[in-house]
Design goal:
Blueprint: E1 5-11, H1 18-26, E2 33-39, H2 46-56, E3 60-64, H3 70-81, E4 86-89, E5 95-96, H4 100-110, E6 116-125, E7 130-134, H5 142-148, E8 159-161, H6 162-167, H7 179-188, E9 193-205, H8 214-233, H9 236-239, H10 242-259, H11 263-276, H12 281-290, H13 294-302
Parallel strand pairs: 1-2, 1-4, 2-3, 6-9
Antiparallel strand pairs: 4-8, 5-9, 6-7, 6-8
Pfam families: Glycos_transf_2
GO molecular function: hexosyltransferase activity
Organism: Clostridium fungisolvens
Length: about 300
């Protein structure tokens, strides 16, 4: 009999974290799952760690790419191999709360119309050694929310029907960043998504992650901006909210520049966000604050 959930773990050179990730799945209170580990052509000893689990547990399988295809490619490979009705993804440096699958499966079995779900999460900053509860903004219309911003976050949060994953073509490979957001847009456009309003993931922040690489982050967000512009251009429902949506898109890019303290670049995008939708409070607040000058702005913001 096939498992109800296929847990897909993409990995690349994660010898120091992969064990904790796998252990967090093995600690799940819900047991009807398989684990598929996709090694994206690691060149460290990650395989040696995984082999110990494969030898011990029959429901864990390991597959290695002969070339590096990136996280999206690894997830797509895992999905092709999956036997479960649902797919659940987990990055090899993150960890699940032990009741994650139990609570998700309960929701899915209670409402068969749900196509994908996600939850809140804990943000674990490795360098600062801090853990913070993160709750995503709530949008009744998940597609509208996704047009404005990535209202979900990490793929380690989601569980999705395999047939839905296949129908949208999986993850787009080759994007510099925002692969998750691109995928969520495709799902939200046609399918039902719900949120479990409690933290079921520990998401680890590292300095070498894509989210910590400004050039890749900006490039990915600009591609999302282009995609969103195209999506709303022929949609009568959302074309009416075009200015608000694009204002939020520019705000997203401005916030990335601010994260890396690129004051002048951020000011350009905060201005665009305000210009498109003057009622965008965050854009207005940041733009006005920037009139104080760079030094005073940062003193007030980070004091």
């Amino acid at each position: 009999m096939n498992p109800y959930v296929s847990v897909i773990i993409p990995t690349y050179n994660r010898i120091n974290t992969i064990s904790n990730t796998i252990d967090s799945v093995l600690a799940q209170t819900y047991r009807d799952y398989e684990i598929i580990i996709i090694d994206d052509n690691s060149n460290d000893n990650t395989k040696d760690i995984i082999d110990r689990y494969v030898q011990r547990y029959q429901f864990i399988t390991y597959h290695k790419h002969t070339t590096n295809k990136g996280g999206s490619g690894a997830r797509n490979t895992g999905a092709k191999l999956a036997k479960g009705t649902f797919l659940s993804f987990l990055d090899s440096d993150d960890q699940w709360i032990d009741t994650k699958l139990e609570k998700e499966v309960a929701c899915l079995k209670n409402d068969s119309t749900i196509d994908m779900l996600y939850s809140n999460m804990y943000l674990v900053d490795v360098e600062k050694r801090t853990t913070t509860l993160y709750r995503q903004d709530e949008y009744e219309d998940k597609y509208y929310g996704m047009l404005c911003k990535n209202i979900i976050g990490s793929t380690s949060l989601i569980t999705i029907k395999k047939k839905v994953f296949d129908s949208v073509g999986g993850f787009k490979e080759g994007l510099p960043s925002c692969q998750d957001w691109d995928f969520y847009l495709n799902v939200a456009r046609e399918y039902k998504i719900i949120k479990i309003d409690e933290p079921l993931l520990k998401y680890y922040i590292h300095s070498n992650s894509i989210s910590g690489n400004m050039d890749k982050a900006i490039a990915g967000h600009r591609l999302i901006l282009e995609k969103v512009s195209n999506l709303i251009s022929d949609n009568e429902t959302y074309i009416k909210r075009k200015n608000n949506i694009l204002s939020n898109q520019y705000l997203n890019i401005a916030n990335i520049y601010m994260k890396f303290r690129k004051f002048n670049e951020a000011k350009v995008y905060y201005f665009r966000a305000f210009k498109y939708y003057p009622l965008n409070k965050s854009a207005f607040k940041n733009l006005i604050s920037m009139l104080l000058g760079e030094n005073l702005y940062y003193k007030l913001k980070y004091k």
